[in-house]
Amino acid sequence: MSKVTVVGAGNVGATCANVLVTCGIADEVVLLDIKEGVSEGKAMDIMQTASILNLNTRLTGVTNDYSATEGSDVVVITSGIPRKPGMTREELIGVNAGIVKSVTEQLLKHSPNAVIICISNPMDTMTYLIHKISGLPKNRIIGMGGALDSARFKYFLANALGANRTEVEGIVIGGHGDTTMIPLVRYAAYRGVPASNYLDAATLEKVAADTMVGGATLTKLLGTSAWYAPGAAGAQMVQAVLHNEQKLISCSALLEGEYGESDLCIGVPAIIGKNGIERIVEFELNEEEKALFHKSAEAVHKTNAALEGCC
Ligand SMILES: NC(=O)c1ccc[n+]([C@@H]2O[C@H](COP(=O)([O-])OP(=O)(O)OC[C@H]3O[C@@H](n4cnc5c(N)ncnc54)[C@H](O)[C@@H]3O)[C@@H](O)[C@H]2O)c1
Ligand SMILES: O=C(O)C[C@H](O)C(=O)O
After folding, report:
1. What is the pTM for the complete model shown?
2. Strands of 168-169's sheet, edge to edge?
3. How open is the CA angle 293-216-248, to the nearest 5 degrees?
4. Cα(first)–Cα(last) distance of the chain, in Å?
5. Which residue, of 29, 92, 265, 271, has the fewest CB within 10 Å?
6. 205-218, pLDDT tens digit by residue?
7. CA 164 to CA 263: how far, in whole Å?
8. Do the beta carbons of residue 252 and residue 265 sit within 8 Å?
9. Does ipTM exceed 0.85?
10. Residue 178 annotated as binding?
11. What whole-number distance in Å separates Cα of residue 41 and Cα of residue 173?
12. Full set of structural domains in the chain with CATH
């Protein structure tokens, strides 16, 4: 029996729970929020799709009752405030660090062996914070950002190519920030053929630029940040762990020398399986990509430094 807890029953958390249930990824899902009745209501609404969609996962909603999360195999943290148009993700640190810290501590009391997937922003820094406060083995803490950024990269690539969305390849590494993410254009491909064989440099540059501000574009349109693709990306990572998929997914991982960086969590390709991050994969980067990665790491270190004053 597999059990998953999703903390935060807002836009992202409820969507993640809905995908977990709809795709039958876990046997049992607990949705927890601090706001009275919200998790219970969303869980009830989602479970009322069960007879329509022929679903077998059991979803329960609870208000701040961590005893219900006991023995979870995977926990997904989405609690925290989202940004508004014009804001950066980094500006959320003051409020979200305290929330992520207290949620992590309570979760671990009841699920000491869980793999933790962090979604709350600024995600790389929140993932690093979880490492610092929990002392868990590094493989058990995964930040979700690259999975979403890579999905957006593939969306814009498929549009530019006029291709089927399932037939394009693209990966984004680096920080999960408007200026720190790095869509690896050189590795973008359509059915194994480099995308640069089909698209000129200016088009590829626009695909990369649109990807980097993908979250900001949606925030401007929606008045709050996105949730369908973020929730689904969170569920995709849960699936990779629970089903031991050994799948290569870009995610925020604690680096200890990989890509020439240490003591931070940042987006890198990694194999995800039953132990969480099974191993980090080191892509060969050219000089320009290496420089971008180091610049991105510098920015993430700077945001991490702000943790000192906020929790
Ligand atoms: N990493 C990513 O790729 C990514 C993508 C989308 C959103 N996000 C981030 O995810 C977070 C959630 O976004 P959202 O759109 O779902 O926001 P939301 O406001 O819709 O939902 C957040 C929920 O967290 C709950 N919450 C707050 N404090 C809590 C606590 N202590 N315990 C339990 N629940 C608590 C709130 O009551 C709310 O229901 C934001 O920080 C957002 O920036 C990250
Ligand atoms: O853009 C945001 O603030 C939310 C999230 O990080 C996203 O990329 O959708």
Report:
1. 0.98
2. 168-169, 189-190, 193-194
3. 45
4. 36
5. 271
6. 999 999 999 999 99
7. 39
8. yes
9. yes
10. no
11. 37
12. 3-145 (3.40.50.720), 146-305 (3.90.110.10)
